[in-house]
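Annex B. Sample input.
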Amino acid sequence: MGDVSGNVPLVVVGESLTDLAERYGLPWAPSAPESGLALQRAEHGLEIAGNPKRYGHPIRADFVSGAAAHRRRFGGGRGQLVAKACGFGKGVVPRIVDATAGLGRDAFVLASLGAEVLMIERVAAVHALLDAALTQAKADEEVAEIAGRLSLRHADSAMALAEAVRDWPHAPQVVHLDPMFPHREKSALVKKEMRVFRELAGDDDDAPRLLEAALDVATHRVVVKRPRKAPPIEGPPPQHVIEGKTSRYDLYVHRSLKS
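Annex B, continued. Sample output.
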């Protein structure tokens, strides 16, 4: 599919990325523009960068080092909120579709706990980051096994979720959603990263349609991540809620997950 983005201009930059620009239908330039965002290759791999005063540090997907490595080693295993919400239990390792993958952080955590996970991302440039990170992870001895449980699709889950999961060789037992929402984190870094996503993807005004699609596809449950004090997505009410300090998970359960 072609690019899905907001109003901010994004340009693929550099001679080595001409094929990538063509594949995603994105504009290309030999050097970074003065304004807007650039998808470019840097020292540590593919990244999206813009004016640091507006966007902060460049963003990239990374399954090998940094936060991913720390969370893999010290993140709390099945005690993590996302794991509880997705239904990990004694003898239960669900098969999960992360229908709003973003930079793949939750998907990688779930795969590190043993789950087969299908990541779906609608924004072309972000999908490119995920694809690059997945390739890197599969070549890394320490995380190759985890990366082998991750699959990736470029699709808009609100419009084509059923189609996106059709050729995945696993039943979509759980669909995980993390729709864009006006987050209120106090961290300036988080705010600037969210600004990149918001300008690329816009707010998820189609969140009710996304929930509807997820409920149609999931065989067992839909899990929706929300800021703790935010209202549920418009539609059927969740049957269960799991709350953390800053966020919560709304659970829509068709049937129980069993070992």
